[in-house]
Amino acid sequence: MLFFYFSNMKIYVVSGLGADFKVLERLQFPEHCEIVFIDWLIPEKNEPLSIYVERMAEKIDASEPFYLLGYSFGGIIVQEINKIKPAEKVVILGSIKSDKEKSKFIRTGEVTKIPRVLPLSLFNDRAANVYSVVRKLFDPKNPKILQYFKVRDPYYLKWSVEKVSEWKFEENPSVIQILGDRDLVFPVKNSKPNYIIKGGTHLFPATKYKEVSKVLNEVFLL
Question: What Gene3D superfamilies would the database entry show (predicted)?
């Protein structure tokens, strides 16, 4: 374990669906950690999740130990990455450890296949109704919510919604899960998280960054 204290340990980070790293920018990590953000890629037409994950993982240097951290959909992605490039630790913020933890809202999409048949035009910048849903689900009291969602390619958004609704995964008990107790996207009642952020909506990494930073420093120093 001394290795972690005398060498920089890279934490590869994937943000939430459609989000850039602004939502995570105020988080504080241990001094021995080096943060490496993995940008979202635009999926190829009908690209399987497994192939997409392989492309996302190309940035990771697996020749040395590393950690993975994912927020929301990014939490799903880092767990998939961990299957092909195992990390020393995997931490997920506002995300789920298996398909059994999906909310009723997401399960409805899985069963009905509605995300597949939604028109691409629904996901463009002018689709105000989509962003009103985002506001209600993520943090209805946050007037600046849309500043966190910078990746607005319609195909990427539609593809991502499909993949979240279709996702099947057996829980890995070593994954460290941090949830907000007011999260409507991934309700805490469906999971048994390692840590719960009180008063945290789905945007808790941005709105409760001090509490989250305290947890992250504890997790990455263990």
Answer: alpha/beta hydrolase
- Kindly state whether residue 202 falls inside one of the protein's structural domains: yes
Q: If you average pLDDT over residues 120-140, what whole number do you get? A: 54
The CATH number assigned to the domain holding 108 equals 3.40.50.1820
3-state secondary structure string across 62-96:
CCCCEEEEEECHHHHHHHHHHHHCCCCEEEEECCC
Q: How far apart are CA 90 and CA 80, in angstroms?
A: 11
User: Which alpha helices (H) appear in the chain, and where do they start and end?
Assistant: 3-6, 49-56, 73-84, 104-112, 114-117, 128-138, 154-166, 204-207, 209-221
Report the 10 Å Cβ neighbour count for 146: 14
- Higher-scoring residue by pLDDT: 141, 11: 11
pLDDT at residue 161 in the model: 85
| Parent domain of 162 | 9-221
In a domain, 1, yes or no: no
Stated pTM of the model: 0.85
Residue 4 resides in a domain: no
pLDDT in tens, 7-45: 689 999 999 887 778 889 999 999 999 999 999 999 999
Q: How far apart are CA 19 and CA 21, in angstroms?
A: 7
Report the distance separating Cα 64 and Cα 42, nearest Å. Answer: 28
Residue 94, pLDDT > 80, answer yes
Indicate the number of domains in the chain: 1
Half-sphere exposure of 54 (CA within 13 A, CB side): 6
pLDDT at 184: 87
